[in-house]
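Example record

One chain of 753 residues, shown exactly as stored in the release files.
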Amino acid sequence: MEGGGRGLSDLLRKVVESKGGRLIYLYREAEGEPELGPGISGLPLPDKLKSALEAEGIHRLYRFQQEAIDEIEAGRDLVIVAGTGTGKTEAFLLPLVARVLRQRGNRFLLVYPTKALARDQARRLSPLIASVGLRYSVLDGDTPASERRGIYEDPPPFIITNPDMIHIGLAESKEFRELVSEVNAAVFDEMHVYQGVLGSHVKWVIYRLSQVADEVQLIGAGATIGNPGELGAKLFSRDSVRVVTGPRRRRGEAIHAFVDYGRFSRWSFAAYLIAALASEGLKVLGFTDSQQMAELVARLARKSYNARVEVHRAGLPVEHRRRVERELAEGSLKAVVATSTLELGIDIGDLDAVVMASLPKSFNSYVQRAGRAGRRGRPGLVVTLLGDDPIEAYYASRPEEFFSREPDPGYIEPNNPEVAKLHLVALALQRGVLRRGSLPKELEASVAWAEQRGLLKARGDLLAPEWRSAREFISSVGLRSAGPMVKIVLNNKVIGEREMPMALYDLHPGALYYHAGAPLLSSKLDLQSMRAYMVKLSESVSFYTKPLYSIDILEMNVEESRLYGSVSAAYGDVHVRVSVTGYVVKDELSGATTSEVEYEEPITWDYWTKGVALKYPLLDFDTLEASLSAYHALEHVLISASRPVAGASDTDLSGVSYPTGHIVIYDSHVGGNGASRLVYERLTKIQDVAKVIVSSCTCEDGCPRCVFSPYCGNNNKFLSRHGALRVLSQLTSLKSESLDIEEIKRSHRLKAA
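Predicted structure tokens for this chain:
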């Protein structure tokens, strides 16, 4: 490695080894100039636009930008896939600007996933739009009423907004519906974000938009999508979507490092690493996949290393997040720990280093986070801590395989009934009256529910909204969730909220919960009022908590089934019951369990979601415990193996196993998020990766590097690596056994008894 890259890797080695850690692998990534396309002068663009580009020093486009311009000019629905900072914004913006310059009256929506990102991007887009004498406006929930009236009365060519505003505007505002009815094209930037539950919501928002603007051209743009055509077709509800592919990452150099954190917990070593790199003058952004772990890492950095480290995550006040963004961009703040909130393209200035406390939930997420380091021609440092996790152990021994991976496929669950309920009612408010027979089947399936709840009233084939109750329902449910929300209460004041069922795991009585750096203890979780009551703890606390829980499958309605050799598989609706039975207390530095608490009565909650049921051949294990341990371990490793194969986060999936050889893997979100569908479709490859994990580990019979899971409800009891390997090794020599859903339900009843 040369120059800055060499210096960064040497610095990292010194910092890591001084604390007893170890560099596992270094990878240098260098990206040259994307393939060049035609010169500006030869393009069929208006002279005014050509002059503006040349004034900015842009004399040639990239090849993929020209291809995108051609597709958009032809009016085709399109997805542009290109890395952050490679010019994908210009690829969709230039043809739209050209269209307005040729014919005034054209109108376009530029849609970003959040208000913060939309406003940030507006600042970036404004110079080009203004340089040719055009106008734009930001229209969202924060737009003042007077400014909003001006937009409705004299619409600009470019309206920058977010899906939430489109959702509410279509349902509640005649002026908004009239505004977007004249939209010629809508661009959904950062499209890779629209996965899972949010993606399912956005699919219906786009469907409802197309009911008003019936000839709207749909354009998506994203950095990392493994199946852009398929995801675009699902989100846009269009039969065919074109795809243009640009460079995977920006031009420049990045040093990627895998690090073993040794005897410390990953959280304490991540805190040390962030603090140490910041003390060397680097601007550092740390990432975790958990809000609570982000708080913990920042707290450890402040308490143990006297570093100024701030937190950026959902659930914190907007003013706090904006201050953190501003100070990081200005350079007065050198270190921040974030969740996915800073994964997107919000401008936080140049970053020298990204530190990931664990492998992110998907490879796409890794690429996004890594892309934040080393912008504007400077080399960047990307550090990932690998430790006691099956997939981390898998890639620690196969790092080349990790860095040669293709982007993960995007997935949504279009049939999520909880999502469909919201958009059925919203569509009724939007139109005033619906004809039952013309509704998509996914929305029609929720009609009876909406009538029963007093949200719609039927007159023959016609459906009309009950206006007051329908509006109250729309205002109480957002696009970021499918399950009900639990309010977090401190000193009789609501300070935040958490979606079910995750609220069960984070807010159970006795749970330690961090809010804006302050440690709180849950004293009561009331599922009748959906409120969790907190008390404040001393800043000197030195522990964190993990729930103990059990899962029961109450019912399953099978939609389809198939055989994978000797394994029977079925996919459909799954009725799940979660019972939190207690919790364990862990030391925040070492991660060791210090105590275990069991409730007198479990806290239970049930919900419907999507899932896949599997029936593995029942082998002749010596005891019931041996059988239970084998299939329980197999359940864990299948969920782990779904991460590299399906791009599914292990927090998007949950599971339960039975000594009968039955395993059910289901979506962790109410109504489904699409992850288990990919498990159902890619089971053979998932089993191949699972076999590698359990066969290559050298532990006695199960450890965190093979079959243990940090999300296990019984604290990783009754797990056998050898048992799981035995099942996987004999699949090719055994006959399949029929999958009996009733047998799963009987197992639940025996367990309950």
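Notes: Residues 749-753 have pLDDT under 50 and may be disordered.
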